[in-house]
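It is worth pausing here to work through a concrete case rather than discussing structure prediction in the abstract. The textbook approach is simple: state the sequence, then state the predicted structure, then interpret. We follow exactly that order.
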Amino acid sequence: MKLYTIETGFFKLDGGAMFGVVPKTIWQQSNPADERNMCTWAMRCLLVETADRLTLVDTGIGTKQSAKFFSHYYLHGEASLDGSLRQLGFDRSEVTDVFLTHLHFDHCGGAIRYNAAREAYEPAFPVARFWSNERHWQWATAPNPREKASFLSENIQPIHQSGQLSMVARAEKAMVADGPGFEVIFVDGHTDSMMLPVLRYKGRTLVFMADLIPSAGHIPLPYVMGYDTRPLITLSEKARLLEQAAAENWVLFFEHDPVYECCTLMQTEKGVRADQFFRLSEL
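Step two, the predicted structure:
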C-alpha cells in the first residue's frame, strides 16, 4: 500500500462557526481570522494505492458551482485535484474507488462535474465506484433544515443515477465496518453516519479525521464546530478516539488543517494534545 496527500486548494469559513463555544480570543491564536472573521482551511484528500485499486478519499469542493456560490467561500491557493493527481503521475480515469466520508459539499463536490457540453452532470471519475452508506445517504437526500445548505442535490443525485454507487454496510450496533480496502469508523456527532477510514500503513495506524477533528486546533475536547448536529455526541466520539489514538500511537490525518497534514498525540495534564507534526510523505 502507498498513501499520497492530495491537496485541492483552500477555502474560508467563519471562525466562530468552526470553533463553536470556544472564544475567539483563544482559537485565533492557532487559526487567525481575517477582517471578516473568516479563517483559511484546507480541503485535503487522501489517495490510497494498492495492487489492484486506486482509492480517493473525499474530493474537495469541485469546480461546477456558480461564481456566486464560490464567492461565499473565498477559494484560493494553487493546488487542485487534477493538478495533485498529475504531480503523482495519476489521472482521474485510473481511480477505481471514490470514498466519501460524508456528503457535505466541501467533501464530495469534486465527485461530479459537467459533461463536455455543459448541459448535464456526470461522475468526475468515469470508472470509479462511489462509496457512501445507507444511513448517511438517506440523511443527505432528505436533509434537515440545519444541514440542507450543505447537502447539494447536484453533488449527490448524479452519483446514484450513474449506477456507480456502492454502500458500506454498517451494522446497527457496530462502530467499525469494512470499506474498499480499509476499515471504517462510523461517527454521528457532526452528521449522521460519517465514515473515517482507518489504514494500516508502514506499521502504523492512520486515521483520516474528516470533520470529527478537522484540524489540529480541534484536538481539545471542547473545540467542537458549530456545524455539528449533535455536539455532545461529538465530544464523546472525540474522547474515545483520542484516548485510543494516544495510547496506541496512531497518526491523525487532517482534512482541513491549513498547515499540518498529520500528527501523533500525547497525554498531558490538560488531556490529550498534539505531539509531533509531520507530512504524510515523512512516515
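Step three, interpretation. The helical segments are 15-19, 24-27, 67-71, 81-87, 105-108, 134-141, 153-162, 231-248. The radius of gyration is 18 Å.
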